[in-house]
Amino acid sequence: MITGKIQPQASKILQKEVLPTMRRDNITNTVLEDQIILMLGDIWLSKNIDNKRKRKHYASYHMRLAGRLLVLLREMTNLSSSMSDFLVPKYFDAFVGCTLKACDAMDKDTEDSNLDHPSTALKIGFDLCRMASVKLGNSIKSGDEQGRLDTTNFLNLMKLEWTVKVTKIAKATLNERQFNVHKSLPDPEDIATLAKHISSELNAFNLKEMNPDNYRNAVILAESRLLLYNRRRPGELEALSLKCYEKRSKEISDIDKSLRIDLTDLEKKMLETQEIIEVRGKTGKRVPIICPKEVLPVLQYLANPTSRRRGGVKPGNPYLFANTANGVVKAGEALDEIKERASLKSPHLIYCTNLRKHCATIAQVIGLQDHEMKWLCQHLGHTQKVHSIHYRATSGMIERIEISKLMLMQEMNRVAKFAGKNLKDIQFEDILGDPETCTEDKEANEEGNLKESSDLEDVVNAIADIPIVLGDEFSRKTKTKVTRIQWTEGEENELREYLHEFIGKKCPGMKA
């Protein structure tokens, strides 16, 4: 089918995994004939070498994207040159125009244009740099000085002009769409209803019936339950292999046993009934899957060789959630199918990314400590920065209650009264208060300020005569409100005795 079209520069893994799966059209034919684009495919395979299930899709997508760009370049220039021939400064502006065209720019004027597919422009920019780097490496190896110079100048143009002409437009379009889109989180009642529905079906599942329909139903129920319970990414759950399942943590470790003394009866029960499976996360690190007790029998059913054979799973399929081919049942599709069985108010809001956003938003309402937030991020498989920027939505309750407290404190000049307190410990009644009570407190404070000891009046006057130094080292601080307590006669006598050298009708002199 593709005999004679695969260039020798393509690696064996590219020829085996990627090229046979690509759709046969003009773009694929262009890809198969171009050396630089084939080497780009090898780069993407190497970048995702540890992601065996999806690496071929990444490589195929970026190769076809580069092939589409090359087709547009040939149409614009009326030339049949290769990608290597176009990677010179002369055609830089042509690359800009074809990239915007590939993203379906709405206007011809690029300064005011919006892009239908802005993320495509960002991907093309990175791939252009990769292909130019490949050409630069080939030129250095072959001693092609002119090719090296042209490619170096092209990369310099990418640094100087690509950001303004392409990247800025793409990012502006993305930011505008993200700002204007209405972000609705799932209805908590829908989540509870769906979880109850899945659990009831798992408890009623017939483990003795072994046929393709029952096996697929088991896959859908197990994937949906684990996805909803763990808020995992679908790709991470789909990639769960039989080998990882066999290595699951079933027994309580010695450390966990030593901590059981401080646990409640319910916590001890959950520790004994739940199992932990570790899978490969998005960034390559281990992420946990917590398996509640109702899903454990179904997982054993899916791993049973007899049920797999009678369920139509091929012997060489390494995945736990296998389909009848060599792949898996997608977790997102499993969740969509199970949503149709339950009576939900807003089923369209329940999908994997939105469930993760819901978890991140609820976490800020609860007010997790720093170490608890770190635990949550480790479970979800991302950093705290990604957690805050991409997943956590603004909570209306926090804005309307907690932030409103802070705004009211500023408006009513009550900040000093609540210094050192947490917002959750401050009540609106304490901020607003009673106007009559506030007036009485103010008058009482003024009377207290007048009750100063007359014997120390000269000392106070002397201190007041000291010039005030202002500079960058000193910052204005808000005085903390204190309750004044009048000194006793014994304390005043002790103070006079201690400071008798400095108390007088004039400023004390400086002694050597």
From TrEMBL:
Q: InterPro entries of this UniProt entry?
A: DNA_brk_join_enz, Integrase-like_cat_sf
Identify the SUPFAM superfamilies for this entry: DNA breaking-rejoining enzymes
Q: Kindly provide the name given to this protein in its UniProt entry.
A: Uncharacterized protein LOC111115486
Which regions form coiled coils?
none
Encoding gene, per UniProt annotation: LOC111115486
Q: List UniProt keywords, sorted A-Z.
A: DNA recombination
| Any one biological process term the GO annotation gives | DNA integration
Which is an annotated GO molecular function term of this record?
Answer: DNA binding
Source organism superkingdom: Eukaryota
The organism named in the record is Crassostrea virginica
